Amino acid sequence: MSGGIFNSSTGILSENGPVISLSGTVSGGITNAGLISSSGEGSGSREGVSISGAFSGGINNSGTISGNLGIFASSGGVSIFNSGTITGFGGTAIEFGGTGNTLTLAPTSIIHGNVLGTGADTFQLGGAGNGSFDLSTIGAAQQYRGFGTFNVIGGTWTVSNTFAQTSPWNVDAGAALIVDGSLASSSLITVNSGAALHGSGTVGSTVINAGGFLVPGPVGVAGSSMTVAGSLAFQSGAFYVVQLNPSTASTTNVTGTAALAGTVVADFASGSYVNHSYTILTAAGGVSGTFNALATFGLPADFAASLHYTANSALLHIMAELVPEQPEPPLPPGEIPEIPGGPTLPEQPPPFFTVNQLNVGHAIDNFFNSGGALPPEFVNLFNLTGTNLTNALTQLSGENATGAERSSFELMNGFMNLMLDPHVPVSCDSMQCRELSAIGFAPEQQASLPPDVALAYNAVFKAPQKTVPTFEQRWTVWGAAFGGGSTAKGDPVIGSNDVRTSTFGYAAGMDYHFSPGTVLGFALAGGGTSWNLAQGLGTGRSDAFMAGIYGVTHQGPVYLAGTLAFANNWFTTDRTALGDQLTARFQGQSYAARLEGGYRFVVPAASNAIGITPYAALQTQNFRTPSYSETDLSGDGFGLTYAAMNGTDTRSELGGRFDDLTTFSAMPLILRGRVAWAHDWVSNPALNASFQSLPGASFTVFGAPIPHDSALTTASAQLFFTPSWSVLVKFDGEFASNSQIYAGTGTLRYTW
Known about the structure:
By secondary structure, the protein is mainly beta.
């Protein structure tokens, strides 16, 4: 017979014998979507289907087959696929006679009665959808008996209870076997390409072939484990999927040996990761080989993962990577095939980091990666991405404190210029202006003075121009106010921010003239500084006490000037880092010296003579602060401790000074100017800092750079009211590519 039998009717019934009885050679098989039932009960040949002889077409039942014995196949090689119901009223639903038979159950399969094989038949779980199977029904005295091989050929099957036989199990493409019971007695479980073995139960010795998956624990649940009672072997190209959350990871415990190969796929659940190492596999008999690759999915962008091994285990280490050294490209799509019954896997690109942000991030990373436990406030950083993360790292850097060095250098520059500028390139207190000697003005300049200028000087100083009086006035006292402001641009690569600085001071001093050409003096000053960073990253201020000595000597047109100065600063800084209010108070000291020399020429002008003095100067400053710590007003743990620092700035100047005698309201007036180029040997303001709540987590933070080359300009005027009183007003400017400094000085001098 060939062609097969197809039944989709409501019923094919028989009361006295088999409904369908086939013998001889039969091909084409039986397909039933309706009802085939032999309604008689008790003993006798009342099968729903009876087959003898050569039968090659198989039985596909999606309907109902019932009888005193549902299906009886006395010949071998019969294949049955059941997605419907098979019932044996007499207690046996299916009975095989010959060998080489196969029974396949779909998830919707219902069997009423025993299933009897011959000892070498194949039992299969297949079909589409999710099914479950109780392993306790398989065995010598159980419902399903007489099968030697067990296969899972389709769908996702969850098996429970204990499998007591030694028969092998095979999981084939498109199928997933979830073991919640025990297959420990199985001689071998083989997972083939496109198939997956899941679960938190126990399996026997297992081989994962290329393209196959082993997923310990339920899908989507980290922390569960699977036990392999025997050996475990991953073939090249196999996949081992581990599921992790912040506190635990799924793992496989092997009682024998484990041979490793293929790819570990690490699927991370969302959360704040604080653990450093996860054990993903243990083998009591030892581990051989290594996995060939690691693919991570869902791992926060601020971490990196790597595999490590011991004699008996494989471990997954995660390393904090708020700021990766080199961003890794996204995993190419399709590199990891879809896991049967498994998770889907996302990805995201990293942001760009500046040097300051990298330094802060590396400090936190290194603390974590060295085994430190991050406080909750720091753990939250690992939930940030993109600009939220980079902004947070910028706030944590504590760049605000670098303003102390910049402002102190600017304040000291103003103080030293204040002491020297009235005396160079000419000495012009009342006595020397009255003398109009070579100290201040060469004879040729005296001769070229316009009549109104000469009369003004004679009127104020009460002496003829060419009368040389006795050297009688030796002391001068003076008081001055000085200050300035600056703006500096940050470096986008370094990650420093724009900063505005202001300085101010009030000074008083006294000169003593040892000779008409030489003057020595000292000055004391009180003042302060303030600064603020862009983006609201913090402010700072200081109160300062300054002291200095200075001297100038003239030998004809040549002059030499020098000064030494000291300042003590009392600083206060305030900033906010991720809502944490932080303040600090500390002291710093400045030491400075300047040496300057020049040669003055007199250049005739239309109605006068102008003094031009090329000059060169060398100046050095040293600024020191001790180690100090911020006070954490909010208690969020982001306070920093700054190491002691020592900053230097050595400056050379080349330029020219200019002076001219004139009058204002019939009073002598000296106009002065300066144009120069300055080169500074100075490093960027930088501090070494460490988080107080992360011992050893230190880093370097850089402030806006101090320029190496600047153009200097000065304009000043000194007006003499009487032989004893004069006032000087001066404006200075420094101009560089990334900063500008403007300063002003007002000085009142009295000579007696």
